[in-house]
Amino acid sequence: AQSVAQPEDQVNVAEGNPLTVKCTYSVSGNPYLFWYVQYPNRGLQFLLKYITGDNLVKGSYGFEAEFNKSQTSFHLKKPSALVSDSALYFCAVLTDKLIFGTGTRLQVFP
Amino acid sequence: DTGVSQNPRHKITKRGQNVTFRCDPISEHNRLYWYRQTLGQGPEFLTYFQNEAQLEKSRLLSDRFSAERPKGSFSTLEIQRTEQGDSAMYLCASSSMVGTLNPYEQYFGPGTRLTVT
Fold first, then answer.
1. Do residues A7 and A102 touch, judged by C-beta distance below 8 A?
2. What are A30-66's pLDDT values in tens digits?
3. Which of A32, A100, B2, B70 counts the highest number of beta carbons within 10 A?
4. Is residue B63 helix, strand or coil?
C-alpha cells in the first residue's frame, strides 16, 4: 500500500534559521509526491510537487524539497524561516487520490 | 478562476439528523475529490468523481454517506443519521488531468466543519 510518514509531530526553529520538515514514502513504482500547508481554519494550500526530473524541487514562499530515491525521502526545506511560516505541513503521495501523512506543526519563534 | 468553494463553512447538527454539504470546483476541472480531516490528523480520502462518474469510494464511506456530481460541475456530500464520530472537517478539492500545465495538482476549498452534538 502507498503511504507517507512524517516522523515529527512538531518542529521548532528560530526565525532566520534554516528549517527541515521530514517525510518518507513507501510507494510501488514512481512516486508522485506533494507538500501542502494548512493555516488555521483554512484549507490546504499547494506548496510544491515532485513528478519527475530534477531531484531538487522549488515551490511557493521560498520552500524547496529534495527527492531522494535511495532513502525514500522527500524532505521540505527553507534556507531562512519566517514567523509567518508557522503552520501545519502535510506530505502526500498521489495515486488516483492524495494519501497524506499525519502532518508536522512548524513553529517559528521570533 | 475563483477557486474551490464550499458551503456551509460550519454546520452544527444533532445526532441522527441528515446534513448535506456542497462543493463548487474550479470551473474547468473535471476531477472532484472529497476528504475528511479530524483534529490532529491528515486528510483522508472519501471519494472522487471524474466528470459525473464516481470512480472510487473509500471504505471510510459507510452506507450513511452519499455523494453526487449530477452534471459534472458542483458536488454534494450527504450524511444520513449523523453520529458524533462524523464530526470533522470535510474538504473538497478539484483538479484537471487534461489541458492544463498542472495536471496533478489538487486545489482545496476552505472546508465545511461539521459538529454533531
1. no
2. 889 999 999 987 789 999 999 988 999 999 999 999 9
3. A100
4. coil
Q: A22 — phi, psi (to 5°)? A: -90, 150
Q: Which of B56, B107, B111 sits opposite A97 (nearest CB)?
A: B56
Q: How does pLDDT run across B62-89, given as a tens digit for each residue?
A: 899 999 999 889 999 999 999 999 999 9
Phi and psi at B2, nearest 5°, equal -100, 0
Please name the residues in contact with B39: beta carbons below 8 A apart, sequence gap of 6 or more: none
pLDDT confidence tier of residue B60, bands split at 50, 70 and 90: confident
Mean pLDDT of all residues in A6-19: 97
**Mean pLDDT computed over every residue of chain B:** 92
Environment class of B66 (CB within 10 Å of its CB; exposed 0-12, middle 13-18, buried 19+): middle
**Is the Cβ pair A36, B56 closer than 8 Å?**
no
Calpha distance A14→B87 (Å, rounded): 35
C-alpha cell at B77: 456530500
Say yes or no for a CB contact (<8 Å) between A44 and B108. Answer: yes
Question: Residue B33 in contact with residue B106, Cβ under 8 Å?
Answer: yes
CA–CA dist B22, B34 (Å, integer): 11
CA distance B61 to B39: 18
